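Mods, move this if it's the wrong board.
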Amino acid sequence: MSLPSVALFVMPGFSPFHISTPAIIFGDILPQPLFSLTFCAEQPGTVRNDYGMSIEATGGLAQLETADIIIIPHWPHPAHRPSEALLRALRRAHQRGAQLVGMCLGAWVLAWTGLLDGRRAATHWECEADFTRTFPGIRLDTNALYVDEGGIITSAGTAAGIDCSLYIVRARYGSAVANRIARRMVAPPHREGGQAQFIDRPLAQTTQDTRINALLAHLREHIHEPQTLDTLAATVTMSRRTFTRHFQRATGMSVGDWLLAERLQRSQRLLEETGHGIEAVAQACGFLSPVTFRQHFKARFGVSPSEWRRTFCGSRDTQ
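Not the wrong board. Structure tokens:
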């Protein structure tokens, strides 16, 4: 029985990490080969990047006519539309049943083919707004580490290529083999949560409304205290109705949503930078109870506070 063939597409200016991850996993990481890997490019030959590195691509677009799995591990820039020759080759490959994989910005290449229209997809969180604007017919999952829809797999940025590649191995050879590879790479065979835990979305520190700015500064200093709309409205000498309207216009959020986002953001810092237990963190951030805190944290970031702490500072929760 022949091994599944993998065509790993290389483009000038390739990213070393994005290329090396699938190259390792679909290459010879285990003594017994699992895949037949070929580097390919639009034109066979030497492909160089900006770091003085080069890869010899032995296959061209013709390689995509027969490969079982085609991986686009990266793409130089989202606005750089692929050549029609590449897009046609990918469409033909999908039509004959090949599995297409777009990692990180490689998802944009698959999006340009039109094959993702009406499907779910993932890409790096920093590009989600541009992706949605460019491809409104694609349902972008902004939290997923990878998405498998109709024989097309797309994944989030950089390290999510490991998760995506292990998923493909798991689907072909089972969890035991995928776990062996993960151990060799000293990587988790499956990560909990999704991109939400890595997205940096700080709240605006100021607005164009000076009274609201003063209130935001006050709230940040007293984030651990309970707040009511009537009290906050009185602080800025407005009626409750006027205050809620001004706050929404200034921040783009309701008072409740802003307080929750600020409290969760504060809790992230405390989990990463202190040894406080979950109950102490919840209290310091103004949550009514540790249970409420855990529920909101899990809903927002896809992982528990304890899992967040282990991910970002390596220490165990002291409860």
